[in-house]
Specification:
Elements lengths: L7 H32 L15 H30 L7 H30 L5 H26 L6 H27 L2 H31 L29 E4 L4 E8 L30 E8 L15
Antiparallel strand pairs: 1-2, 2-3
Length: 316
């Protein structure tokens, strides 16, 4: 029998379903990697390279929520089409993309096992690494086995019922991964509160350095924050990003002061209880800016040796 001709409909239908498969697979692996990172923290970095706003996690979750159901719907439609027209199973677009998928997933499994053995021989096996190797093996291996089976199966009338458990199993794995991702990510309101808190810390740090600069220029600290405002340098005292209220400032001594803000969430710490860096405040731990939820006042005293007053008319 002659090989059926590939129509534009065939080409774009199979291109779409395999593109959705790749996006779903990569998103699932990324999501499970994020889960593994939280379950098995890196003992070297101790969380200092943490993705505070979890952009990779959010993207993986969003992709799975939208793309994976679309993949299931289109794959089911194409499967039913092949059951009704089994002669279309040899369409070139389907075979080429299936073999490409087998090559990519097969290569991923082989490389995954090579990396596993190489790492094992180097004595660097950790729970975090093992979990990621297993994730790649499970996801890529599962796709490889399914499409190898799909390439060889016959499209009999009962085939839809026979493949349903496979699709249900894949859906359960994706759903469980999404639940784990949401537990790690938290609600959208929590992410919004996190951004507000980071902006508050950034504002307080900016005010603090303006106070230090004021001290070096005038030999005294300001009585209130309005004294810091300078149209020439374009500095205007920031206010709370959510409420618009002014931050509380109090001069407590000749060289000491306190800055207060109300936070929505406790500050983040690593597994040793040390403050983690804020994406708005540069790198490294920020033990001096740790806080609980609610109002927190930061007491500061300017070290005159570290921040000397500039001489009048002298060279700075």
């Amino acid at each position: 029998m002659d090989t059926p001709k590939t129509t534009p409909k065939d080409f774009f239908a199979y291109l779409s379903v395999f593109a959705m498969l790749y996006v779903s697979t990569i998103s699932l692996i990324s999501l499970l990697f994020e889960v593994a990172d939280r379950l098995f923290p890196d003992q070297i970095t101790n969380g200092y390279y943490y993705d505070y706003y979890s952009g990779g996690l959010r993207l993986a979750i969003a992709s799975l929520i939208i793309v994976f159901p679309a993949y299931l719907a289109l794959a089911t439609y194409l499967h039913r089409h092949l059951v009704a027209h089994p002669e279309r199973r040899d369409v070139a677009a389907r075979k080429w993309l299936t073999y490409l998928t087998l090559f990519v997933t097969g290569a991923a499994v082989v490389i995954d096992l090579v990396v596993l053995i190489n790492t094992f021989l180097g004595g660097e096996i950790t729970s975090r690494f093992i979990s990621k190797v297993f994730i790649v093996l499970l996801v890529a291996g599962g796709v490889f086995v399914y499409y190898l089976y799909d390439l060889r199966k016959t499209f009999a009338p009962d085939m839809t019922q026979r493949t349903k458990p496979i699709l249900i199993g894949a859906s359960v794995v994706v759903l469980a991964s999404l639940v784990g991702g949401f537990l790690i990510l938290g609600s959208p309101m929590k992410m919004r509160d996190l951004r507000f808190d980071d902006q508050r810390l950034s504002d307080l740090q900016s005010i603090q350095w303006q106070i230090v600069n004021y001290w070096q220029q005038k030999g005294a600290i300001p009585a209130d924050l309005s004294a810091l405002e300078d149209p020439i340098s374009s500095f205007y005292t920031p206010t709370d990003p959510k409420t618009g209220e002014a931050y509380r400032y109090e001069k407590t001594g000749a060289r000491s002061f306190s800055l207060c803000a109300t936070f929505a969430l406790p500050s983040r710490t690593d597994r040793y209880g040390r403050g983690l860096e804020s994406p708005r405040m540069g790198s490294g731990p920020n033990e001096g800016w740790q806080h609980e939820a609610g109002e927190r006042c930061f007491e500061r005293t300017i070290d005159a040796d570290l921040y000397p007053v500039y001489p009048k008319g002298g060279v700075r």
